[in-house]
Amino acid sequence: MLKGVVRFGSDCEGPPRHTHGGCIAAFADQVMGTFVIRNRLHMYLTGSLTVNYKKITPLGSQLGWEVTLDGDFVSDWRKTKVLFEMYSLDGSRTVYATASALFVNAAFATPLKAVL
């Protein structure tokens, strides 16, 4: 498990006084990717990312977040699935966003073909 605290500043504003969903998705992808690389000790790439926005996220508030391996997914050295949750730290533990991502070992990623 990897845990931390985040605060989205004014550069992440979407709706007035609230955090843009793209900033939340980028943050979730980054911390999940860091977790996978540190946990698996290999370079992994994001294969898919699904973000669920549970509540509109207030701008400037401190939020907790956690990343864990998905225990229901059979991980191997080629791919692994990771879960993310972002929540309030005010005691109510209101969940603002969850995410799941499938990461693929870079050694097995299919190269992209140039479109001409």
List keywords for this structure.
five-stranded antiparallel β-sheet, alpha+beta, Thiol Ester Dehydrase, Chain A, elongated, 116 residues
What does this structure look like?
This protein is α+β, with helices and mostly antiparallel strands and about 120 residues long. The chain has a single domain (about 1-110), classed as Roll (Thiol Ester Dehydrase, Chain A). About 15% of the residues lie in helices and about 40% in strands. The longest helix is centred in the N-terminal third of the chain and has 20 residues, at about 20-40. About 20% of the residues are buried.
Give the overall shape, derived from the CA principal axes.
elongated
The CATH topology is what? Thiol Ester Dehydrase, Chain A
Number of E-type strands: 5
CATH superfamily: Hotdog Thioesterase
Sheet with most strands: strand arrangement: 1-3-4-5-2
Q: How large is the share of residues in beta strands?
A: 35-45%
Number of helical runs? 1
Task: Label the CATH architecture.
Answer: Roll
Average predicted local confidence, pLDDT? 90
Name the helicity range: 10-25%
SSE class: alpha+beta
Our count of domains comes out at: 1
Please trace the helix and strand order, writing H or E for each element. EHEEEE
Specify the biggest β-sheet. Answer: 5 strands, antiparallel
CATH class category name: Alpha Beta
Radius of gyration: 15 Å
